Amino acid sequence: QVQLVESGGGLVQPGGSLRLSCAASGITFSIGSVGWYRQAPGKARELIARMANDGSTYYTDSLRGRFTISRDNAKNTVYLQINKLKPEDTAVYYCNARAPNIYDYSGQGTQVTVSS
Question: Nearest-5° angle of CA 42, CA 34, CA 44?
Fold first, then answer.
């Protein structure tokens, strides 16, 4: 059974930081790319960042700088470090693991709320 389980979300004050985690099971994690997306209320899901199996990264230009994606293949886990959080970062954050023609899975999401 394939599972991607996000954790680390919560309520944080503006300017704070969070580290989201996504633990995968049931897939050969290391062969695929991983990514983080988010969806704010009333908005479409947007890509934050992806990391290929060789460690190369892609960030959406408008979000570059405060977000850092990383992965630990030994733990089948992908992380998202978010710094200097803003109220507009409030959203449900989803992880994704994808290996073309092999698998493409996303987690159920973790809520991040930025508010004072």
Answer: 10
What pLDDT, in 10s, does the model give residues 62-94? 888 999 999 999 999 999 999 999 999 999 999
Contact yes or no for 51/69 (Cβ under 8 A): yes
Q: Check the CA dihedral 46-48-53-57 and report its sign.
A: positive
Q: How far apart are CA 106 and CA 87, in angstroms?
A: 25
74, two tokens: 């030994």
Please provide residue 44's backbone torsions phi and psi, each rounded to the nearest 5 degrees: -75, 155
Task: Kindly provide the residue ranges of all beta strands, DSSP E only, lying in the chain, ordered along the sequence.
Answer: 3-7, 10-12, 18-25, 33-39, 46-51, 57-59, 67-72, 77-82, 91-99, 103-106, 110-114
| Backbone dihedral angles phi then psi of residue 65, each to the nearest 5 degrees | 115, -45
Query: What is the three-class DSSP state of 61?
Result: helix
The answer to whether 35 touches 69, Cβ cutoff 8 Å, is yes
